[in-house]
Design brief:
The complex is a heterodimer. By secondary structure, chain A is of the alpha/beta class. Helices cover about 45% and strands about 15% of the residues of chain A. In chain A, the strands form three sheets. In chain A, strands 7, 8, 9, 10, 11, 13 and 14 form a seven-stranded mixed sheet that branches. Chain A has a five-stranded mixed sheet with strand order 2-1-3-12-6. In chain A, strands 4-5 form a two-stranded antiparallel sheet. The radius of gyration of chain A is 22 Å and the shape is globular. The chains are: A alpha/beta, B mainly alpha. At the A-B interface, helix 3, helix 4, helix 12 and helix 19 of A face helix 13 of B.
């Protein structure tokens, strides 16, 4: 169907590699000395295919401004890029998530300030989701070009299981707590969770903080306010998660399940769990791995429901407002020019937009409603587009928004919170200790 | 130390011999000593791995030494070391003694037992993780409820699992050491014992085990010092979790350095690891006595 990576494209890509390698051999070698720009990005299908095609298309159209792409696997990339930047060997174009990591690059003077460039090119900024610029902006200045797709966190549910048990999707936190014993009574886990990955647990806190106290609660943490984690709304949210765990809201053994093996996804489509909080990319996984699950209208989705008496706006969302491209400040003037040309003539061109939609994702480009509506996945894509474009606040995932130092402490403490080996108060105290670090 | 009492030196070789060590020395200095000094220097500096390095005096050391995480990580490290030693050593000795026999089936079994050592730690960790998945693992597949535990989600289960997997991986190696050592024991000792009417069990405890003394020390040194560097297996299997139940020192170092961007404190932990490793190796050497390096073979 809409599988973006057919065998043919794969073969095409394979064939393209030696060609581009041969062409790149014409220039002088190595970043820094060369007149040609370099670009490092993530491997892993189907995203890699879309990225590579967009880059190839740019290179074909601009034979004098070729960019050499290199792909890395996710976790390896995170370490590799940091080492490369630290050693002054960064590629011209750096792919990243914005937020806290970008801030550490900016503090070290390693990435180009793009504020004035965006001032000169208002047309580039105008076509993208405004929320995508949040994680690209550090202390009021823009350091990154938003690219690719929006990825809000979505509450998925298995419609068939809801029918079987004879209940309705939750409209509030109270409903969620009411549903838990009903599903447990039928031996179905209320929520699937890949708890060993830790960031999966974090999504629950992101939503509960927002729904109970509004976006200000985490914003205070982000701004480095003293004792921001001890906000009563924060403590309330932390307590609510532990109540849900205590009530067996999550699948048995969730701490042994990793998200990278997609076992959490399998629990939902196989009907062994009723609901799951996960990124919008999960839709593509459900579709690819779940057999007829999505095609037979088994997958339901909604924004996280409000918490009774909470201050937050239920239209708010969290997740990845976008992916980002930074320009290395160590690149030559010509490399920087090529990179900026890629921003205007390479990023989110019509073909790339179409490919992203084909993967079941929503490009962070305004005005794609018609294209989304024409897709096989129209219902989900329209939903994602609406959530992303109408959210008053699209908060970035905490582990991306915070500095790597604070993020690591956060993930550790979240794991302990979900183990119920620490109380909300201890959690807050541990986290207050690393605020602003 | 024994230079003065040693045999008289001959001129020629003593002039050339030291130079033969030069290549090894260059590698050792280049890849061990210099980085070690670098790490030591870095432990007195602030560095996030990207920006510039700022000297910070003793702050890192103070932070690391007062952090409650350090005693915990040290405790877990020692526990992994002690428990895995206690599990591996008896099993390895028994297996080694068993495999030292000459029947053909023992050779076949020896090859089978040896297989885990041929696999990489990463592959082993990934395999066990998949097998023990509470919902889609072997327990579910075979319908054995007992195997569908929350293996990686409960502190003691996760700890036990780490010990089990480590033992599964390294017992073959140590068995091999013991097998070799048992075969070196002079046959005459057993013949004499048999004449005196000692049974198999008695022979094992009175001859085999005492004769294995130095092998036990060698094997234990490898186990103990090696367990300080357990990283890949635990990193993939549990990531130090649940909570920090299996967060050993090496993992703590990696997480601080490369995940939390705190190269200074991570370096301090690395120095602590080096010191602990050296101390342990020296201690074991002491336990072996002065003659540990000498050959035990008859006539050698």
């Amino acid at each position: 169907m809409a599988n973006p990576l057919s065998r043919r494209t794969l073969l095409g890509m394979a064939a393209a590699v030696p060609v581009s390698a041969a062409l790149s051999a014409c220039g002088s070698s190595g970043p820094g000395k060369s007149d040609k720009a370099s670009y490092w990005y993530l491997s892993g299908q189907p995203q890699e295919g879309v990225r590579t095609k967009a880059l190839d298309a740019f290179n074909e159209a601009h034979s004098d401004e070729r960019i050499k792409g290199t792909t890395f696997q996710n976790d390896a990339y995170k370490t590799k890029i940091k080492t490369a930047i630290g050693a002054g060997e960064a590629p011209t174009l750096i792919w990243g998530w914005g937020g806290g990591t970008l801030r550490s690059y900016v503090k070290a003077g390693q990435v180009e300030d793009l504020t004035s460039w965006f001032g000169d090119h208002p047309e580039v900024k105008k076509r993208l989701f405004p929320t995508a610029f949040g994680p690209a902006t550090i202390d009021g200045r823009i350091y990154a070009m938003p690219c690719e797709t929006v990825q809000p966190i979505v509450l998925y549910y298995n419609k068939k299981v809801f029918e079987k048990v004879g209940v309705e999707p939750p409209q509030s936190w109270g409903d969620i707590m009411d549903l838990v014993p009903k599903f447990n009574a039928k031996n179905i886990a209320p929520f699937s969770l890949g708890g060993q990955s830790r960031w999966t647990n974090m999504m629950w806190l992101e939503f509960l903080f927002d729904r109970i106290g509004g976006p200000e609660v985490f914003q205070a943490v982000f701004d480095g306010e003293k004792d921001a984690w001890s906000n009563p709304a924060a403590l309330d949210a932390l307590g609510k998660v532990q109540e849900l765990i205590k009530a067996d809201g999550f699948v048995k053994g969730f701490s042994s399940i990793t998200a990278d093996s997609n076992a959490d996804q399998a629990l939902l489509y196989s009907g062994r769990a009723a609901m799951m909080l996960h990124g919008s990319w999960s839709y593509g996984i459900q579709k690819a791995d779940g057999g007829r699950f999505v095609a037979d209208d088994g997958l339901g989705f909604m924004n996280f429901p409000p918490v009774d008496g909470g201050k937050g706006d239920p239209s708010d969302t969290v997740g990845n407002p976008g992916q980002y491209l930074y320009i290395s400040s160590k690149a030559s003037a010509e490399q920087k020019k090529i990179a900026k040309d890629y921003f205007t003539k390479g990023v989110l061109q019509p073909a790339e937009v179409k490919n992203w939609i084909g993967t079941g994702a929503v490009p962070l480009l305004l005005g794609t409603e018609k294209q989304l509506a024409a897709s096989d996945d129209a219902e989900f894509l329209n939903f994602t587009y609406d959530v992303a474009s109408k959210a008053k606040t699209f908060a970035q995932s905490w582990d991306q928004a915070l500095s790597p130092t604070a993020a690591e402490t956060l993930l550790d403490n979240i794991a302990k919170l979900f183990q119920r080996s620490i109380s909300p108060k201890t959690f807050a105290a541990n986290m207050n200790a690393v605020i602003g670090k | 130390m024994s230079v003065l009492t040693g045999p008289p030196r001959r001129r020629e070789p003593s002039g050339i011999l030291p130079w033969l060590a030069a290549p090894a020395l260059v590698f050792f200095v280049g890849f061990a000593v210099i980085p070690l000094l670098g790490v030591f220097a870095l432990s007195f500096a602030n560095w996030d791995g990207i920006g510039s390095i700022h000297p910070s005096g003793l702050t890192n050391w103070r932070a690391v030494l007062t952090n409650p995480g350090l005693p915990h990580a040290l405790w877990v490290t020692f526990l992994v070391m002690a428990v895995s030693w206690a599990v591996q050593t008896p099993l390895s000795v028994l297996l080694g003694a068993f495999l030292a026999g000459s029947q053909r089936y023992r050779a076949v079994l020896g090859v089978v037992y040896f297989v885990p050592l041929l696999l990489s730690s990463a592959a082993i960790a990934l395999t066990y993780k998949a097998l023990l998945d509470p919902n889609f693992g072997i327990g579910h597949g075979l319908g054995i409820g007992f195997l569908s535990q929350d293996w990686l989600g409960r502190p003691w289960l996760a700890f036990g699992l780490v010990i089990f997997v480590v033992s599964w991986q390294f017992i073959p190696f140590h068995s091999l050491l013991y097998q070799g050592a048992v075969r070196q024991i002079p046959q005459s000792l057993y013949e004499a014992a048999q004449l005196d009417g000692a049974g198999r069990v008695r022979q094992f405890f009175s001859i085999t085990l005492p004769q294995l003394k130095y092998t036990v020390i060698t094997s234990s040194t490898l186990m103990v010092v090696g367990s300080l560097t357990f990283f890949d297996l635990i990193f993939i299997l549990t990531e130090g979790g649940p909570g920090d139940a299996t967060r050993v020192l090496a993992l703590d170092m990696y997480k601080r350095g490369f995940q939390a961007n705190l190269m200074g404190p991570a370096s301090a932990i690395a120095v602590i690891l080096v010191l602990v490793g050296l101390a342990l190796a020296l201690l074991l050497r002491r336990l072996g006595g002065r003659d540990a390096g000498d050959s035990q073979l008859e006539g050698a």
